[in-house]
Amino acid sequence: MKIITRITFILMCLAFTQAMHAQDAIVYDYRLDEKALNDNKNPIPYEIRSSPLFGKTINVFGASRARNARKEITDTWHCKVAQKYHMLYRNYARNNCCIAFDRRNERWSAPISDFYEDMDSCDYILLIGGHSDAEHIIKGKGTIEQFEEGFIKLLRGFIKKAPSAKIGVMTPWRISNPPYPEITRIMIEQCHNFTIPVFDCSTQSGIYVWDMEFTKRYFHTYQDNTHLNAKGHKLFRNKGEKFLLGL
After folding, report:
1. How far apart are CA 90 and CA 123, in angstroms?
2. Residues 117, 154 contacting (CB under 8 angstroms)
3. Contact 101, 143 (CB under 8 A)
């Protein structure tokens, strides 16, 4: 009985560990089974089946901008793209999470540069970041040099962890207050140094965070300069999708 009890306890511990690991990401599996893949009555459009994204796995990292704050992740443009191309979608984003700064003493999260190794294998990695790091620096709790060091650490880590994965990075929106321009500059420069594609959201996104009428329509609130609402994600989706297709 003691042996059986011990084995049962070990199995329970393993099950608990796996459950905790599963909770690291919010997962949506849009992949098709064999029957759906070969359904002649409902054929998969050629442009979908022939896409490099079709049936692949994507891991998304970031803070509330990638997590969609407290709104539905399924409203985000990247989740919609994953659904369109029948992908396995994992969202590792955490609200108020930084790329480089540890916020656990504020009851938030370790930096992405510390926990990225927990991710499961994937074909694509998408990092949407910079806002939380900028706000952390604005509060005097970090420096631009520390951000750059942490960002470099993360890029190296992504490459080491998933050398065959295609990596894409998105900068903050266009916000003129320091250190946002510096954060964007560093992200672009370091991505170029590592030959990692980067989408400059400050110049290419068509998202106008400085316009109150625009934010009223496309952000969670008119005072928000970070989080797109469902309409905003729909507006940005074509550009985001094109970026992912080009990785």
Report:
1. 11
2. no
3. no
C-alpha separations of 88 from 64, 104, 125, 168, 212 in Å: 21, 29, 12, 17, 36
**Alpha-carbon torsion (55, 62, 16, 18), positive or negative:** positive
Q: Which 3-state string (H, E, C) describes 118-152?
A: HCCCCCEEEEECCHHHHHHHHCCCCCHHHHHHHHH
DSSP 219: B
Backbone angles phi, psi at 76, to 5 degrees: -70, 150
Confidence of residue 246 (pLDDT cuts 50, 70, 90): very high
Q: Tokens 């003493």 — which residue?
A: 105
The 10 Å Cβ neighbour count of residue 28 is 16
User: Residue 210's closest CA among 202, 3, 197?
Assistant: 202
Residue 150, CA distances (Å) to 110, 112, 182 in order: 12, 9, 14
Phi, psi dihedral angles at 78 (to 5 degrees): -70, -35
Residues 6+ apart with CB under 8 A from 224: 215
pLDDT for residue 188 is more than 70: yes
Tokens in use for 183? Answer: 């954060």
Tens digit of each residue's pLDDT (9 = 90 or more) over 67-85 = 999 899 999 999 999 999 9
Rounded to two decimals, the pTM is 0.90
Q: What are phi and psi of 198, to 5 degrees?
A: -135, 135
Residue 26 β-bridge partners: 91
pLDDT in tens, 11-21: 333 333 332 33
